[in-house]
């Protein structure tokens, strides 16, 4: 049911996530951050120029690798597509529209993959890229509580969002979440944020 | 002894060792590491072993054409510019490469291949002049279509009215990206200290193209020129690793001038052939449509009115 709602809402607003303030609707992470900054709240004010550059670069890394890998797994891995994605994507629509739109989206995503050079990658290569990305993030995090030491920044929010989703979404194969679980400091990072900001007990991050 | 590795890449121009982004990055990396490559600078992608440029032919005959894979192969062959980097610096490399690909690459493609003025006066001109006949007629156009498609896929489909806004946004992000790179470089010689790494090869290829090409419509160029440390960085690498490119005359190094002179007889032959073909076409048309007709002198004409026959005979002789 929640998936239907998500699909429905994303058709209306165009993109999730979005915030609704007064009569303004702002969608996607970048613009939301800018909007909040304009209101006087910014997480990265305490950073110097070099750190800001690094933060932006790591955010791009996450977008480039993790986001694309998630997209790949959702739309280019036949097992996942057949079992989960098609049904989920087409759920708000009646037959035969659900099949047609799902296939169209899949074709679109495959084209995009080809344009960025991921068209010929196998699942193993994609998983290796994810591993590299996680390794980079893990090394950058080190033993610090957050990426830029004491205070969380936009980068922490972005990384948490992606990693949490990977760790808690059930897919046909668990290899993606296994790759993330290899890095204990990333796991600890996710758990810490979940406890601190969302107040839940961390049993939602499965350890298996 | 295995055959040496051979690198096929686009030829140089505009004061650079190569006009193509990927070829330039690979060449620069090879120079940084001192890899013994036999470099073939060609202007005909069909003559490369994989059909595209750049392409690396390894000592075992295998052909690699994705730039990142070429660099990975060089690393495996022990030509590794990132050997001395710490794990954290390696992570930074990945992050900054993603930044380049997401923010600078679309704008670079736009500047050279989509912006009408730049494309016609600089890019297409260079490719059309450099490529051999008859490729120069259709290949630049094909390359442009491929780049435009790639750009559209990278940025998502947009309606025409939104394009101007999208363009502004793209350039805005690219300017930000350049500023970030400048801040990260600071006053260092290279991004990770005194020795160049693979990140330097990629950053250099992007910046050098923007800096050196004489673009009529260079919005990003103006911004780059304002970032003095980046300009100095480019010039430093050019003078250190590609000292003779400024003169635009590469001395006969590992590449013998053969690929160039081989083209010469073909070019002449093609020109003569095309002229002959043109003449043959004209003559054939003339004969077939009766403007000109060849008649053997007949021994006896069919009886006709004398006057008309005389007139015709006179005409035809």
Automatic annotation (TrEMBL), chain A:
Keywords: Acetylation, Membrane, Mitochondrion, Mitochondrion outer membrane, Protein transport, Transport. The keyword Mitochondrion applies. InterPro entries: Glutathione-S-Trfase_C_sf (IPR036282), Glutathione_S-Trfase (IPR040079), Metaxin_GST (IPR033468), Mito_Protein_Transport_Metaxin (IPR050931), Sam37/metaxin_N (IPR019564). It is found in: Mitochondrion outer membrane. Pfam families: GST_C_6, Tom37. One of its GO terms (biological process) is mitochondrion organization. GO terms for cellular component: SAM complex. CDD domains: GST_C_Metaxin2. Residues 13-106 form the Mitochondrial outer membrane transport complex Sam37/metaxin N-terminal domain. Residues 131-193 form the Metaxin glutathione S-transferase domain. Involved in transport of proteins into the mitochondrion. Belongs to the metaxin family. PANTHER family: METAXIN RELATED, METAXIN-2. This is Metaxin-2. It comes from Monodon monoceros (Narwhal). The gene is MTX2.
Automatic annotation (TrEMBL), chain B:
Residues 23-144 form the Mitochondrial outer membrane transport complex Sam37/metaxin N-terminal domain. Keywords: Isopeptide bond, Membrane, Mitochondrion, Mitochondrion outer membrane, Protein transport, Transmembrane, Transmembrane helix, Transport, Ubl conjugation. Belongs to the metaxin family. Gene3D superfamilies: 1.20.1050.10. The chain crosses the membrane at residues 272-294. It comes from Delphinapterus leucas. The keyword Membrane applies. One of its GO terms (cellular component) is SAM complex. Pfam families: GST_C_6 (PF17171), Tom37 (PF10568). Involved in transport of proteins into the mitochondrion. Essential for embryonic development. This is Metaxin. Signal peptide: none annotated. One of its GO terms (biological process) is mitochondrion organization. Interacts with MTX2/metaxin-2. Associates with the mitochondrial contact site and cristae organizing system (MICOS) complex, composed of at least MICOS10/MIC10, CHCHD3/MIC19, CHCHD6/MIC25, APOOL/MIC27, IMMT/MIC60, APOO/MIC23/MIC26 and QIL1/MIC13. This complex was also known under the names MINOS or MitOS complex. The MICOS complex associates with mitochondrial outer membrane proteins SAMM50, MTX1 and MTX2 (together described as components of the mitochondrial outer membrane sorting assembly machinery (SAM) complex) and DNAJC11, mitochondrial inner membrane protein TMEM11 and with HSPA9. It is found in: Mitochondrion outer membrane. Residues 174-237 form the Metaxin glutathione S-transferase domain.
């Amino acid at each position: 049911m929640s998936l239907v709602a998500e699909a429905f809402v994303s058709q209306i607003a165009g993109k999730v996530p979005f915030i609704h303030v007064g009569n303004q609707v702002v969608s996607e992470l970048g613009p939301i951050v800018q909007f909040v900054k304009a209101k006087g709240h910014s997480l990265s004010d305490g950073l110097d120029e070099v750190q800001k550059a690094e933060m932006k670069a790591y955010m791009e890394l996450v977008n480039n690798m993790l986001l694309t890998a998630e997209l790949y797994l959702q739309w280019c891995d036949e097992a996942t597509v057949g079992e989960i994605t098609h049904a989920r994507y087409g759920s708000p629509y009646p037959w035969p529209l659900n099949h047609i739109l799902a296939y169209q989206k899949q074709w679109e995503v495959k084209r995009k993959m080809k344009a960025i050079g991921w068209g010929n990658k196998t699942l193993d290569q994609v998983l290796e890229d994810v591993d590299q990305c996680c390794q980079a993030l893990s090394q950058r995090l080190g033993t610090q509580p957050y990426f830029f030491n004491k205070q969380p920044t936009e980068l922490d929010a972005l990384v948490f969002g992606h990693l949490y989703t990977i760790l808690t979404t059930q897919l046909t194969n668990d290899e993606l979440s296994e790759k993330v679980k290899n890095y204990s400091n990333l796991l600890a990072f996710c758990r810490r944020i979940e406890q601190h900001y969302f107040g839940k007990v961390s049993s939602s991050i499965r350890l298996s | 002894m295995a055959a040496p590795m051979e690198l096929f890449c686009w030829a140089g121009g505009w004061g650079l060792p190569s006009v193509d982004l990927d070829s330039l990055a690979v060449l620069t990396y090879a120079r940084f590491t001192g890899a013994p490559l036999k470099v073939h600078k060609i202007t005909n992608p069909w003559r490369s072993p994989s059909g595209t440029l750049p392409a690396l032919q390894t000592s075992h005959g295998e052909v690699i054409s994705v730039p990142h894979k070429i660099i990975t192969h060089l690393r495996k062959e022990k030509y590794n510019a990132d050997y001395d980097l710490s794990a954290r610096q390696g992570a930074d490399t990945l992050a900054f490469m993603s930044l380049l690909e997401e923010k600078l690459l679309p704008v670079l493609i736009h500047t050279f291949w989509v912006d009408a003025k730049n494309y016609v006066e600089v890019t297409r001109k260079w490719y059309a002049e450099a490529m051999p006949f008859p490729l120069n007629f259709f290949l630049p156009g094909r390359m442009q279509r491929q780049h435009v498609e790639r750009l559209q896929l990278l940025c998502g489909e947009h309606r025409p009215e939104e394009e101007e806004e999208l363009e502004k946004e793209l350039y805005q992000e690219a300017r930000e990206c350049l500023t970030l790179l400048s801040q990260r470089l600071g006053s260092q010689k290279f991004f990770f200290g005194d020795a160049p790494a693979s990140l330097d090869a990629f950053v250099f290829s992007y910046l050098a193209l923007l800096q050196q090409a004489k673009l009529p419509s260079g919005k990003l160029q103006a911004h780059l020129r304002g970032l003095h440390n980046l300009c100095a960085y480019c010039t430093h690498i050019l003078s250190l690793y590609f000292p003779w490119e400024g003169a635009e005359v590469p001395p006969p190094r590992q590449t013998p001038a053969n690929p160039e002179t081989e083209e010469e007889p073909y070019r002449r032959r093609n020109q003569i052939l095309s002229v002959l073909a043109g003449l043959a076409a004209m003559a054939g048309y003339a004969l077939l449509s009766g403007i000109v007709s060849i008649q053997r002198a007949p021994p006896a004409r069919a009886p006709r009115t004398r006057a008309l026959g005389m007139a015709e005979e006179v005409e035809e002789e």
